[in-house]
Structure prediction request, 850 residues.
Amino acid sequence: MKTLLAVLSVVGAIVVVWYLACIPMNIAGVLTAAERAGAEVSPPEARERRDMSGMALTLRNPTQIGPVWSQDRPRLPAPHQVVIELWDTTVNKKITSKRSLIYHSWITLSATLLGFAIGTGLGILLAVGIVQSRVMDMAVMPWAIVSQTIPIIALAPMIIVVLYSIGVQGLLPKAIISAYLSFFPVVVGMVKGLRSPDQMQMDLMRTYNATDGQRLWKLRLPASMPYLFASLKVGIAASLVGAIVGELPTGAVAGLGARLLAGSYYGQTVQIWSALFAAAIVAALLVALLGVIERALLRRMGQAA
Amino acid sequence: MIGVVSALAVWAGAMWLNMRLAARDTAFARAVVPVVFGVTILVMWELLVRGLQVSAVILPPPSAIAQTFAGNLPTLWADFQQTFLKGALGGYVIGCSAAFLTALAIDRSDFLRRGLLPVGNFVAALPIVGTAPILVMWFGFDWQSKAAVVVVMVYFPVLVNTVAGLSATDAMQRDLMHTYGASPAQSLIKLRLPAAMPFVFNGLKIATTLALIGAIVAEFFGSPIVGMGFRISTSVGSLDLAMVWAQIVVAALAGSLFYGAIALIESRVTFWHPAQRS
Amino acid sequence: MERHRKIPVMTPVIDAKSLNLTFTTKDGPVQALKDVDLRIKAGDFVSFIGPSGCGKTTFLRCVAGLETPTSGSLTVNGMTPDEARQARAYGYVFQAAGLYPWRSVARNIRLPLEIMGYSRAEMAERVEKVLKLVDLEGFGGKYPWQLSGGMQQRASIARALSFDADILLMDEPFGALDEIVRDHLNEQLLKLWRDTQKTIGFVTHSIPEAVYLSTKIVVMSPRPGRITDVIDSPLPPDRPLDIRDSRDFIDIAHRVRDGLRAGHAYD
Prediction:
């Protein structure tokens, strides 16, 4: 309860700061518009105004700040403008419409989910291989760890373009990027999880004369679940970023990344912000969904905290 | 055909060698086996690309990438300076310091900590790199906007880890400070900051990779005609894939060295932590 | 700042009168201490014994000013526990050594001295002195994780001794150690107590340990936490380990056990 109050206060403070920040950020544009409409602004020269800070302009034109929260293309849209845009482009548009954010989110989400499923599946298989085979452990594991420290997302534009040039386009190239971005975190996390049973638990299995497969199935896999879910949460976030970045290089027309790019081309700030929030909501939902699955699974396994 | 056959032969030979090496778990084997594996992949890549005559606009062979790398050192260096030294490193230092100072500032207030921690955890999981078009619009095409993206990306992971670290001391250690009548500042400096260091470095290590990702991806949204992200997107456009791969080699080296440097400092600072002692 | 305070011998060092402490928990209030009356005089070695939940640790924490009693009065060296804490009247030893892993043993012992603002030279001198007291000479440069559990606990005792407070409060300091190490440390602690003339409050749940060490044994019982018996030991200050086979020793141990039984400590 106390935590909820604290969180709400922090969020409230952020919203207030956001509204206040709109004033210096947008005042210059407001003054230009006001001048065009025939109002008197200070200083009257556009050139002089350009060299002044937003703060100074605000202080010299305190009566003009009204429209800073309702401009068409503000430098910083006010929170309610973003919320209205989000509402307009989700609830008020048909899902199939090119202007519906749900449509764009789905395009990105489907690539994310497909890639995530592929990446996770392969990641778990490789992790099992690494734990079962010493050669694979020694040969592959160092590279999997190193791959965590390098920005492999830089490969994304090339993958899109190369696949495009051999005739593969649409969902699959983005899914491939999502797959390899979620692959490595899952491998590393899963290996850690499969190795998490301690010596005593392993020795117990040995006293039962359990086979390798039994040991994997009865001990290592159940023990690895908390680790797996921790890395799945990292992996799904990476997958989403991958799908978004995958939409940038070919100038895709659909998807959240395409909305971000189009918004930045045409200076449609409200559109950028709403696409950004849509991406944030999708990410939050995905992580929350994983959390729910994790809790349900751990409860069934009797491990729930 | 010869290429494919020899690639398979190399693979078989290398696997046999690695199996022999891995049969005994020595430090030597641990060092050599991954190298053999990596070299095998490169050789097979070379042989297969040549043997199957894969077009250079789909997958250039490693030798071509190496040639491009060696032949374009000034370009690569300029791009590295722009993207890594200015954008990524600048933003990293600003973002991490800001996060650390914020954590210290809210440390005395239980209310702020309770409020900021869930918000910070939430934000840390979001696709922050999407703020790049906004920040490019605000701070212009040059490295400042890239540094701004990096600041936003690294801020929350470092903040969340530092706050968690500062409350990582157990009740007994705090009681001990209490019995000495230590002031809050004394218990911060003598107890809670040192105890927080493993957490802080965890955040700093996560942030190294994020910094590089942020700086490169932000360039996809607009940049001057220099920078690793810029070079990747234009080289992809002109199908100069060897250049793209050369940039990725630079990114890989920069990323792992950056991470390695932070990990090295960590092992000096937190030499006492069980994770560093094994 | 006053670090040493000469107290007239007959005034109690620790004086508790009808002390009560009630914790509020999720399952309702829990009476941790009920009507505790106790006087401890300078130079006493007092053991608190009883099962978990009897309030022995809570009482020690009250003396240290780590818990605040709900009612009753409690003075330490004639001051409130909080004032006594500010005046650095006591050293506290916890169940675990709790040494900071990023500090060497010597720097761990220096920690309270740094906080209390001693000079560099005095710090060095005191560290040497207490390392000798606990038999850890030459280990000052080691890190805690390089020491055995018994050595770590000795270092933590040295840390509590370093600023030379008159009172030493010890909360099951040897509880996590094996019996062989424990015997050895008990002997050393007795010697240290005789040498330094400190007043020691010692929480334990081992009957032999309590009888072997103490001049006064306080037997406590749970639900509510209270004192059921206070035994003044007739054993001489000089106690070899085999005193534990003597008639006196066995008689006291019996009386402690009876006290525990009377308080339904075994339920």
